[in-house]
């Protein structure tokens, strides 16, 4: 067998192996995307509903603070403030139910272990928030302004804990649930992360 024929055979085999390898990489990326996409969507929905809850909590807190100011000044709340209080409380309650729905979808969808654990921590935070709100619903009349202020602060703190827990879930999912990428792009992202870290360090030192 001549050297030319051997070279052709070797070249053909190498080409076939390269083609097969590239096809395997493409299929692996598709498989990873199929695995990650529904989990990524569930986490995104949870983030969106949590952000809405934080907005509703802020609105409710502002109305409660306004109520406290009226009480301290011995002013009757009036129908307008009472209506605002009912609207804000209802909106906050609905927002917690929306987050609960997002967690239910997450339990059915998220199977990546670190993300699943982070979701569990966040759900505990939601449970604490809803439990505190339920206690207020069962005993709506606060005896003192201090009790009302304490309740408002507790709800703010619990909502913030929920938000931070969901952000921790996002951090856990950042690399594990991101779309599958090529090795070249992964390298570029790593380099970009290093440049961003250096830039942040320069801003801090400056």
Characterise the protein shown here:
With 206 residues, the chain is mostly helical. The chain has a domain at 37-180: Four Helix Bundle (Hemerythrin (Met), subunit A) (Up-down Bundle). Helix content is 89%, strand content 0%. It has five helices and no strands. The chain has helices at 3-72, 78-109, 113-138, 145-176, 183-205. α1 runs antiparallel to α2. The protein is elongated, with a radius of gyration of 27 Å. The model has no long low-confidence stretch (mean pLDDT 82).
The N- and C-terminal alpha carbons lie at a distance of 71 Å
Helical segment count = 5
- CATH fold name of the domain at 37-180, please? Four Helix Bundle (Hemerythrin (Met), subunit A)
Q: Which radius of gyration do the C-alpha atoms yield?
A: 27 Å
In the CATH hierarchy, what is the architecture of the domain at 37-180 at level 2? Answer: Up-down Bundle
Largest sheet: none
**CATH class wording of the domain at 37-180:** Mainly Alpha
């Amino acid at each position: 067998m001549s050297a030319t024929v051997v070279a052709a055979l070797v070249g053909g085999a190498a080409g076939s192996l390269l083609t097969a390898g590239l096809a395997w990489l493409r299929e692996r990326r598709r498989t990873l995307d199929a695995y990650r996409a529904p989990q990524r969507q569930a986490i995104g929905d949870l983030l969106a509903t949590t952000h809405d809850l934080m907005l509703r909590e802020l609105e409710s807190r502002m109305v409660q603070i306004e109520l406290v100011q009226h009480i301290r000044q011995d002013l009757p709340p009036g129908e307008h403030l009472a209506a605002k209080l009912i609207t804000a409380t209802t909106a906050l309650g609905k927002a917690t139910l929306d987050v609960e729905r997002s967690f239910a979808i997450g339990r059915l969808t998220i199977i990546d272990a670190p993300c699943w654990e982070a979701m569990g921590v966040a759900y505990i935070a939601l449970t604490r928030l809803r439990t505190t709100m339920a206690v207020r619903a069962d005993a709506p009349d606060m005896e003192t302004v201090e009790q009302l202020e304490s309740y408002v602060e507790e709800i703010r703190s619990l909502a913030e804990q929920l938000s931070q827990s969901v952000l921790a879930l996002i951090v856990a999912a950042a690399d594990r649930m991101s779309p599958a990428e090529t090795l070249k792009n992964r390298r570029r992202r790593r380099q970009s992360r290093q440049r961003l870290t250096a830039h942040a360090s320069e801003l801090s030192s400056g």
